[in-house]
Amino acid sequence: MNADDLFRAYCSQVLMGCDAVKCDNPFCKSCKDFQFSDISRTDITEKALKMLREHTRSPKLCDHLSPNQLDKNFFTQNIMTSIENFRNIESLTETKLEKSFSNSKYFPFFLLKDKSKYPSDKFNFDDETLIYFYNIVNDNQELFSVCPEYVFTYIVTFTNHISDVTLHNYSTFRAIYVLLFLLSIWKTNDIPNVFKIILDTIINFKHQKTELHQYLIDSYKLTPKVFEKVLDFVHDNLTFFSISEGSDAYSDDCKNMIEFMGLLHQAYPFAPTDLFISQVFTECLMNSHDMLVRFLKGQFSYLNLPYILTLRAKSKALSQYYLFVQDHIANAESSERQRRGENVTRQNMYFYVTVNRDNLIEDTIKKIYNVQSKSFLKTLRVVFEGEQGVDVGGVSREFFYLVCNDIFSPKYGMFSETPNGKFWFTSPFIGRLIDFSVMGTVVGLAIYNSVILPIRFPLILYKKLWNKPLLLEDYAGIDPELVESFHNLRKMRDNGQDISLAEMTFSITRDNYGASEEIPLVKGGLDKIVTNENLEEYIQAYSQYLMVDSIEEQFKKFQTGFDKIMNLNVIISGLQPLNIFKIIAYDEGDILVSGEEIIHWEYLKENAKYTDGYNKDSQAVIWFWEIFDEMTAEQKQQFFRFSTGSDRAPVCGLNNFNLTIQKTNDISKLPVAHTCFNIFSLPDYKTKEEMKHKILISIVNTEGFGLI
User: Fold this and answer.
1) Residues 338-381: pLDDT tens digits?
2) Is there a single domain that holds both residue 121 and residue 231?
3) Among 224, 250, 285, where does a domain finish?
């Protein structure tokens, strides 16, 4: 290296730093102990000159300088470093592309956003530029067909020759990001093999505690469109793996793929849950019981990587765990009573809730509020005073339905219905706060006993229960028009309009049981005018009041009741507890509590079973399905609630749900539903008209009628 190049390298070293993740050269800007951090740019040049003079005797040149710091012409020698070289597609030839992509030392510097800022800008990515290249390749596949071979060859060479020095260089990290992006473009039969190689490298980096995984996370945050392409690419490979003969879900290849998916998930933890779920992987290679056993024993389990699993698989594992806990609690209490010489009765083995229909809410509150948390973990059994029904599921479902029907009515005023039919805390509220605690426990009990509730909460409730950060957009589930008005204010500000002319203040006007009340959002808010400059502060204060402050007491009580069950870690010797908050995403909580809206009613017929003399060709069965098809959407929901105790489908809809239609011979009686077993007992009526008349009578009179 001549004197000019050496001087240039020293200047770059002290002005921009080097390529190292952790530099130990105190004469390099990247070192945390940099000697020249407090001097001017002119003085730095003088220091560079001094180091140049002393170079032969006492070299201080950093070992981690990037190639462009050592060679001023480095970036001009290969077309890969700039998108401008690809904009004129007519100027590109296979020979030119082959020459560029065969020179592996340029891969780490592929399509730099600003060459003059590398390595000071460790990322130097531009989402639009990378996607532009992606589209160029897809539109000119024949021209670029020479490139994949060189990419794959470089991956093998690159991963085999990572040294102790390059292991901690940002250019190495950037190369891995670039290679993953290029793999997402060229999908060939060789992809699984080269993808495996690069994944092994990434996982090894992670285990060696380098900063690679954080670098990739930050890179994908900067390039959301590239993130989508890479995520799709990983899904494609996981699907191919899942359907391949002999695939082992617990092999290193599979675990590495899903761990990398977890890295992508960390980049966008609040992205829609279904973005990461692999239905093919879950259905082909996962067994809920096996996952649960592995988890409880502390072995590797995909319940520790829940982002990849369908809600059906996770909820099934959760239900199995709750049944296991219920059995454990019952057996432990039985053993303890026997040890003390006491009798063991059914009352000891279950959590009994005895209520009077005419005093349902007060009885429920008395029974639930002061109960020790451990009692909730027994299997629930509900008894309606004066009634003979034995609860093996159906009575409990009716109990939950009736409690929700009452507590969410205007009579109690605890919850207000939103325009989209969901329920949110009433504010202000002057009733008993303990009622919210009981309601939280009721919701927890429903999950714990696998009962779907006939009410919906906005997703913001689950975000709060799951302790996730709140955003303004979350309130759109309650009042979309208000959220839109905030967006309009931002547009006005961005268009140069003066918001202060509207004379809004940092306050909110609310109805307080008939009286109008103005609440300051900040200290002195009644007199503080909203301006273009403080608009974001106003929106933040308004959001804080609506989503937190105004309903804080109600929510905290509700959360306390909910956590009595959902956050109670049961310690069973040698086994680790399964916590709902760690395996179920907050937006999946809604489906777990309220089920899914039934859209595909045809699955009800497709999956129906018949017993005691009926089959799909029986005249009564044919008539029934004709009657069902003629029903309105509301009548179909009434029928479903009559037959199952809920008007919403269980997790994952009706495609895995079986309704059994049972033949009975007493045509003088109305149809009966055994809700605990999802059995619809249908008399063999003589005419279709009689059948329709009696079915409609039954389904509109469900409470305490025809339910077993």
Assistant:
1) 888 888 777 788 999 999 999 999 999 999 998 888 889 999 99
2) yes
3) 285
Together in a domain, 194 and 226: yes
Categorise residue 450: left if φ over 0, alpha if ψ from -120 to 50, beta otherwise: left
455, 449, 411: which is closest to 595 by C-alpha? 455
Separation of alpha carbons 32 and 28, rounded Å: 9
Total domains, the chain: 4
CB-based burial label for 13 (10 Å; 0-12, 13-18, 19+): buried
The reported pTM is: 0.84
Render 534-576 in DSSP notation, one character per residue.
THHHHHHHHHHHHHTGGGHHHHHHHHHHHHHHHT----BTTBP
Instruction: Kindly report the number of other CB atoms within 10 A of residue 379's CB atom.
Output: 19
pLDDT score for 166:
64
CB 175 within 8 A of CB 107: yes
Residue 281 confidence (pLDDT) above 90: yes
User: Does residue 230 sit within a domain?
Assistant: yes
Say what the pLDDT of residue 338 is: 86
- Regarding whether 20 and 139 lie in a shared domain, the answer is no
Which amino acid is it at 11? C
Residues acting as catalytic residues: 676
- Give a yes or no: residue 480 inside a domain: yes
Is there a single domain that holds both residue 115 and residue 53? no
- Of 267, 271, 317, residue with least CA distance to 585: 271
Residue 465: which of 562, 368, 369 has the closest Cα? 562
Same domain, 60 and 184: no
Q: Are residues 498 and 511 in the same domain?
A: yes
Task: Tell me which amino acid residue 306 is.
Answer: P
* Pairwise CA distance, residues 406 & 423, whole Å: 13
Q: Are residues 523 and 627 in the same domain?
A: no
